[in-house]
Amino acid sequence: MNVAGQPTRTLWPAPDGRRVEIIDQTRLPDEFVVVRLDSLDAMAHAIRSMQLRGAPLIGVAGAYGIALAMQIDASDAALDAATNVLLATRPTAVNLRWALDRMATHLRPLAPTARVEAAWQTAAMMADEDVVACAAMAAHGEPLLRALWQRHPERPVQLLTHCNAGWLATIDWGTALGPIYRAHDAGIPVHVWVDETRPRNQGYLTAWELGQHGVPHTVIVDNAGGLLMRQGKVDACIVGTDRTTRTGDVANKIGTYLKALAAQDTQLPFYVAAPSSSIDWEVRDGISIPIEERDPREIHAMTGVAAHNPGFDITPARLVTALITERGVCAASEAGLLGLFPEHA
Length: 345
Ligand code: MRU
Prior knowledge:
The chain is α/β, with parallel strands linked by helices. The protein has helices spanning 40-48, 55-72, 76-87, 95-107, 112-151, 177-185, 203-213, 225-230, 256-265, 334-340, and strands spanning 2-3, 6-7, 11-13, 20-23, 34-37, 157-161, 190-195, 217-220, 236-239, 243-245, 250-253, 270-273, 279-280, 312-315, 322-325, 328-330. A seven-stranded mixed sheet has the order 8-7-6-9-12-15-16, with helices on both faces. Strands 13-10-11-14 form a four-stranded mixed sheet, covered by helices on one side. It is globular. The mean pLDDT is 97. The site of 5-S-methyl-1-O-phosphono-5-thio-D-ribulose (MRU) has 17 residues, from helix 2 and strand 11.
């Protein structure tokens, strides 16, 4: 997507081909700062501290973290150690495990001398695949928004999103925001209600990137969505996912579940953009997904008051109108997902 009119990704290899550059998302939206990462530890820190975040981006970053580690030591032991360091950074998004498994499966059969080059190539391939998957989700999701517009062609489609599932959360395009960008580019008038998303306020990342692309939007506090839905000011909700079970339950940023409940009560569609890299085929019941427990200091509680800060919640499949994947749109159910991904039957 464009930053100040320039096509930009969230992560790319440095010109020397041996380091990685990222947009430091902890500095947005105030400042656009590029940070250069030169080691496994620097990458692990970037993921843990949320200099980069968002499930698909975390996955690709993990792959590059392996490439950085292999430059120092390409032994089996170093591959295992690097995988464990990266896996421990953030527990909920399954993309990290998915990407690290792919890297290990590809690198382990190779001689250590061949692993450095192969690691950089595979990580780059995964970054490009993420862009293709996001573009495909945008294409599959756009007709859903077009249908909403056809119901009320006299006014913009009113969408509500939570957290940041835009291009900042991926390599490019985004998951939930992809169909919105595509609809906007196709001339469909859209307006996005952007949940602030306490306590980390990823909603301001969403507002920033929508603004860069010229998509009309309004930031709201997290608890405003229910009222707006009841007032008829929302046509649909659209969010991303950090982990989707094979039965269609969805782990996403804390607060997502409450939006889905409000959407059901007001009979509004609740769409989840779910790339296959976010599907955990081994888990059936979303409630068993590990939920990241974040630092209570992120909540500005009064001194001496206990604070509990879970980063994600689980939206059961019954509240999800449809999943938007890179292979098409399906019901949030095992049958729906297997219809698009029969290789996981
Ligand atoms: O804690 P974050 O900012 O990494 O959480 C991000 C989200 O919850 C996104 O909605 C999710 O990763 C889907 S991103 C395309």
